[in-house]
Here is the input.
Amino acid sequence: MHPREHLHKQLERGTGWTTVRERERAREKMRPTPMDYFAELEDQGTTVAMDVDDVDPLEIFGGEGVLSVDNKLADADFFNAFEDDFDDADIN
Amino acid sequence: MGSIENLVTQIQGLSGSVDDIAHLHNILKIADESLHAEPSALSSVLDQVDPAKHSLGYLYFLEAFTFGPVSKEQALTLIPILARFINCCDAQQIRFAPDKFVSVCKRFKDHVLLIESPLRGVSPMRAAVRKLQTTSEHLTTLHPDFLLLCILSKSYNIGLSVLEDDIFDVDQPRDLFLYCYYGGMICIGQKRFRKALELLHNVVTAPMNTINAIAVEAYKKYILVSLIHYGQFSTSLPKYASSAAQRNLKNFCQPYIELATTYSSGKIAEFKVYVDTNREKFDNDKNLGLVKQVVSSMYKHNIQRLTQTYLTLSLQDIANTVQLGSPKEAEMHVLQMIQDGEIFATINQKDGMVRFLEDPEQYKTCQMIERIDSSIQRIMTLSRKLNAMDELMSYDPLYLSKVLFPQVGRERQRFDFDDFDTVPQKFPI
Here is the structure.
């Protein structure tokens, strides 16, 4: 049986199924992967989005290209017509 | 008109128990269209209905009556009627028709802005927020409007009272963006920079599919406040920031990024030249006042740096090192910093020497222990809440479908064969 089919069956039965996160945690405890040893070398400044919202890196090189900028701003009509009230020189 | 009179009778008779109000709501929903057809007939009817006792009925009448554009003169007439209703209406009743209540409140906000009197809207809008909220953790669509009026009327203190609530339930994403942006501005106005950074950070890192104008403006202020409060700024966004923000935010805020880079050199003269060169850009963004605070903060952070090296220093030396005009100016800066608790020092005015001291806080007073205990309690509550949210999410079908099954067309598999346990969990290895 394909692993995914097995998972479907487990979901239907509601037995023995745990969250992906729980299994990842258990796996990390039981069997550290070689990737763990490289964790410290990871650049702290790397801008990588969280997994769930992650954009496939291949997408960057397709479509608009690496250096394209999305110039369309969402909610551009939001109210921001305030006076500049943060000049301390105005406070006596 | 006869049907309206009947409706008034029903409203007066069915505004008692919860069951009656639920029944009344069904009647009002059916009659809503006819109310909008004759808005002018409703002005006399409003006097026959008590906004406090018959809030739901009054709401339907008021919403229909105030529908459509108004002139300044009409706004002046409507504002006291709307304010009275918002202040005295029954929260339980208006929650049967939250959309109508929101419409009425937003119109009220628009009217006070039309007559350029935002202060008149602050107190009713605060009441409206509290009535619409199901709990103090609930962010409503009225929160940003309330904060907007606070900023325009410079009632920063009143806005702060709402910002102290921890928010966990959000109706619309746009509400969260605006709430955090306006909230950040209110905290800046009160010089609560740490809280301002927290709120602005939420805007910048909130999930967004395309780059959001509110996030762009928030990022500009975030950079400036970060320099004022910490004396430094990192261009790296946290990993949980959206890819839209990671890719595009800096491009929209380039002058501010360069301002931060110039600031990091510590050279005040060079920094001031940069500010003067780009004054117009900051002024157009209405951020020039904050930029001036950044300039002042440079002196402050440079003086703070001195405390890490010297035990005593003359005012003349401080003035020279920090590039102030005179020892007197240095003395004013040091005095202000001592007053604000930013450094611990004494000034000997006889010989013009400043003696830097250690932080006298021993962290063993009753007040400090209470503060630490309060923080621990808050963190424990937050931890319980996060665990509950995590558990809820793990059962969410949308989340499961996205995580478990790869999307069509994506080449990368989320999981390989090893990710699928063939042995049920009740038989752990």
